[in-house]
Amino acid sequence: MEIKQVLQANNFRFNKKFGQNFISDTNLLNAIVSDAQICKDDVVIEIGPGAGSLTYAIAQQAKKVVAFEIDTNLKDVLKTTLLGVSNVEVIFKDVMDVDMAEIEKIAGGPYKVVANLPYYITTPILMRFLEESTNMTSMSIMIQKEVADRLTAKAGTKDYGRVTVAVDYFGNAKLARNVSRQMFYPQPNVDSAVVRIDRDKKYTCSDEKLLRQVVKSAFAMRRKVFSTCLASGLGISKDKAVEYITSLGKQATIRGETLTTQEFVDLVEIIKKDR
Ligand code: SAM
Fold it and tell me: Which of 15, 49, 109, 227 has its CB surrounded by the most CB atoms within 10 Å?
């Protein structure tokens, strides 16, 4: 049965607040699974299975799929679309309310994330998995085109931000494909893209918690100079912040968004030595 028919047969009402834009095109669904490079040994965590069309396509290639869905109104729909599919477990919970330790325990080892992400919560989900996961090896996500551009932005550009640094620190991001808004039901106002981010340890930082704090402070107040942001973010004096930034070989007046990931890491090591 077509996804639209399943939704209608179950009297499903779309809930705008959950970013519900579903895909039903089989070629596109299979292409996303292929972009994610899923193979028979893979455990996949899916965020937001919706009507289960992508879940079904992933399950055909993976060992196991664990999907987190916030909307309990999709229970009957998912029962229909995933009928007879034995390697899928759907957990009806807000993925943001589930501890990362719990997610990793459920996955039981290395896992890949594949998701057509809900628009309203894309960045928090991305940040959470990139920063907190220890066993995620890749993340293949359908996101708004403009967010995709942010993931691979260069330092100093308007698209460069906290999420860019988180992606770069985690590994390498690659645009896998652009997807027209016409491929979704209901149709959103924006086009999308599939991006795959592969884990690749390019940087070594002795205090990742402090790194997150420093990067967060750098982008918290874009109009202010970095020394002001850093002082406020770390609760230190402005003079101390200037001292750290100049030790990095930078002018005291630089803005946070001009620093590369490596420079943020170097800055953290300078601060650590002083503590
Ligand atoms: N995967 C489906 C597809 O590709 O057709 C649906 C994708 S739709 C863009 C996003 C889905 O995420 C919706 O089913 C929505 O209910 C669900 N969702 C939204 N917020 C969520 C959250 N915080 N935790 C888990 N699922 C969520």
Answer: 49
pLDDT per residue as tens digits for the range 198-252: 999 999 999 999 999 999 999 999 889 999 999 999 999 999 999 999 999 999 9
- For residue 186, say if its preceding peptide bond is cis, omega within 30 degrees of 0: yes
User: End-to-end distance of the chain based on CA atoms, in angstroms?
Assistant: 62
Quote the ligand 1 centre to 216 CA distance (angstroms): 27
Q: Which CATH class is domain 208-273?
A: mainly alpha
Amino acid identity for residue 173 in this structure: A
Establish whether residue 96 lines the binding site of ligand 1, counting it when its CB lies within 6 angstroms of any ligand atom.
Answer: yes
Q: What is the pTM of this model?
A: 0.96
Q: Hey, which residues does 144 pair with through a beta bridge?
A: 192
Residue ranges, comma separated, of all CATH 1.10.8.100 domains in the chain are: 208-273
Residue to mutate, 21, 66, 69, ligand 1, most ligand atoms under 8 Å from C-beta:
69
